Automatic annotation (TrEMBL):
Keyword field: Signal, Transport
Species name: Acinetobacter soli NIPH 2899
Taxonomy, superkingdom: Bacteria
Keyword Signal: yes
Protein name in UniProt: Outer membrane porin, OprD family
Pfam family, one: OprD
Length: 448
C-alpha cells in the first residue's frame, strides 16, 4: 500500500478544505468523505461434510475519501474530469472479508489504499449528447457503480449518450477493466473460474413523457453472458396522491465458451458437464404516495435462473475473488447476499417509507420485506425446493444545520430453508441459513 500517496491525498483534501477558492470558469472541486461501518454474522446451511456449521462473524469500519474535479468545457465542447480515491481502515474484528478493503495474503484486512479513480476526457456531441473516454462511473439498468461502500466501483473504457429529442435518450458503454470498491487497482474482467472476459458492453434507451417512462437495455459480457430487459412505468395522479405502476421483463443467456460450471458461483451444476442458461424474470410493482407516506407492493416470477453478476475479478491474494454484483432491476431483490432470482422462484415484496419532516426535519424511515418460494436448483433436476425471506429496516437523517451531512443506519436480515429440511440439501443461490447485518453510512460533501 502506498502510504505516502494516501497521506498526500488526505493532505490535499485538508488543504483544499481550508484554502481552496477555485474560480467557476476553471471548473468545480468537490470533497466527499464516506464513513462506513459493517457488522455481519451468519451461519451456512448444514452439509454432509459440515453438519454443524459455526456462526461466521466480522466487524469492520473504514473512512473513504473522494476528491473530485469537474472541468468546464473548453471552447464549449472538450473537458477533463478526474477523481482521487483513498480508503483508510478504522478498525476490524472477526473474519476479514473484502467489503471495504481487500484481504491480504496474511489473512488480515488491508490498512489503506489510494488510487487515481476517475480520469476521463469528455466531449460534447451536440445539445444533451456527450462521450467520455477513460475511467468513469456507470449507472444503468444492468450495470451500476455502488455508492454504499467507502469508494465506488469504477470502470475503464468508453461511454456515450445521445439526446435524440426532448423525450428520447440513448446510451452506449464499453469497458475492459474495472476497479472494484475494495481494491486499489484496475483489474481484468473474469468469470468466477478466473477465465478472462474480453469486455462488457451495453446499449440502452430511455423514453419519458409526463406520465410514461420506458427503459430498455442490452448487456453483453463477451463470450460469457448476455442480458437484456425493459421496464415500463405509468404515473397516475389521483386526488391528493400519486400511483406509480411499473412492469418489467429481464432475460439472461449464456454467450460462449466461458459459460460453464462454476463460472457463476450461484449456479447448481455438476463439474465437467456442459451447461446453459435461459433465465427469464418478470415483475409488476405498485407504488402509492400521499404527502409524506409511501407504500409499495411488488411480485416477481422467474423461469430458469436469472444471473445478477456480470463478471468478477481475482485479487492478488491466493483464491481471492470479488464479484461484480451487477445491478438487480427487480423490486423484490435484497441488499445482502442472495438475489431472489432462483429457478422457478416467485418473490413478493412490501415496502413502506415515511418522511418525518413535520416532527423531525431531515428524518426518514424505510422498511422492506421480501419472501421467495418455489425455488429449485438451476441446472440439476431434483426435488429440492427452497424458501427465503429478507427484511430491511432503515433510518436516514440529513442534518439540517450542517449542509450535505447525512447518516443512514440499516438492519438487514436474511434466512432460507428447504422444504424437506434434509441434511445435505442445497440450492447455491441460497447460501446461508441465517444472516444478520448492521450498516452505518455517514456521508459528507463539500463543494469549493
Amino acid at each position: 500500500m502506498n502510504k505516502g500517496l494516501l497521506l498526500s491525498v488526505f493532505g490535499l483534501g485538508y488543504t483544499a478544505f481550508c484554502h481552496a477558492d477555485i474560480p467557476q470558469n476553471y471548473g468545480q472541486l468537490e470533497l466527499k468523505l464516506n464513513t462506513r461501518y459493517w457488522n455481519d454474522q451468519g451461519v451456512a446451511h448444514p452439509t454432509l461434510l459440515n453438519p454443524n456449521p459455526t456462526t461466521s462473524r466480522y466487524e469492520q469500519s473504514a473512512l473513504g475519501m473522494e476528491l473530485n474535479y469537474r472541468s468546464v468545457y473548453w471552447h464549449d465542447w472538450l473537458g477533463i474530469d478526474g477523481s482521487i480515491y483513498a480508503v483508510s481502515k478504522l478498525f476490524d474484528t472477526g473474519k476479514p472479508t473484502p467489503q471495504l478493503l481487500e484481504v491480504e495474503n496474511n489473512g488480515k484486512l488491508a490498512q489503506n489504499f489510494a488510487v487515481l479513480g476517475q480520469l476521463y476526457v469528455k466531449a460534447k456531441l451536440g445539445e444533451g449528447s456527450e462521450i467520455k473516454i477513460g475511467r468513469q462511473l456507470q449507472d444503468s439498468l444492468l450495470l451500476k457503480s455502488t455508492n454504499t461502500r467507502a469508494v465506488p466501483d469504477t470502470f475503464s473504457g468508453v461511454s456515450a449518450q445521445f439526446k435524440l429529442n426532448p423525450e428520447l435518450n440513448t446510451y452506449l458503454s464499453y469497458y475492459d477493466r474495472w476497479k472494484p470498491r475494495s481494491m486499489d487497482s484496475f483489474e481484468k474482467l473474469v468469470t468466477d473460474n478466473n477465465e478472462h472476459i474480453p469486455y462488457v458492453a451495453l446499449m440502452g434507451a430511455k423514453y419519458q413523457t409526463q406520465q410514461w417512462t420506458l427503459n430498455t437495455e442490452y448487456l453483453k459480457s463477451k463470450d460469457y453472458l448476455e442480458k437484456y430487459g425493459t421496464t415500463i412505468q405509468y404515473k397516475l395522479p389521483f386526488a391528493s396522491s400519486t400511483w406509480l405502476l411499473t412492469g418489467g421483463a429481464f432475460f439472461s443467456r449464456d454467450d460462449g465458451n466461458l459459460f460453464k460450471c462454476a463460472a457463476e458461483a450461484d449456479l447448481d451444476c455438476i463439474k465437467g458437464q456442459q451447461i446453459s442458461n435461459r433465465g427469464n424474470g418478470y415483475f409488476f410493482d405498485i407504488n402509492w404516495m400521499i404527502k409524506r407516506f409511501e407504500l409499495g407492493v411488488a411480485i416477481s416470477k422467474f423461469d430458469g435462473f436469472w444471473i445478477e453478476d456480470n463478471f468478477s475479478t481475482h485479487s492478488d491474494r491466493t483464491g481471492g475473488m470479488t464479484q461484480d454484483h451487477g445491478t438487480n432491476p427487480f423490486p423484490t431483490s435484497s441488499a445482502i447476499g442472495p438475489d431472489f432470482t432462483n429457478n422457478d422462484e416467485t418473490a413478493v415484496a412490501l415496502r413502506f417509507r415515511y418522511n418525518w419532516s413535520d416532527v423531525i426535519q431531515g428524518l426518514k424511515t424505510e422498511l422492506k420485506y421480501a419472501y421467495g418460494f418455489g425455488a429449485h436448483q438451476s441446472n440439476i433436476s431434483s426435488e429440492i425446493e427452497g424458501q427465503e425471506r429478507y427484511y430491511d429496516i432503515g433510518f436516514s437523517y440529513s442534518v439540517p444545520w450542517i449542509k450535505n451531512l447525512d447518516f443512514r443506519y440499516s438492519y438487514l436480515h436474511y434466512d432460507s430453508k428447504f422444504e424437506h429440511a434434509a441434511l445435505g440439501e442445497k440450492i447455491n443461490g441460497m447460501t446461508r441459513k441465517d444472516w444478520d447485518q448492521h450498516r452505518l453510512l455517514i456521508n459528507y460533501r463539500y463543494t469549493f
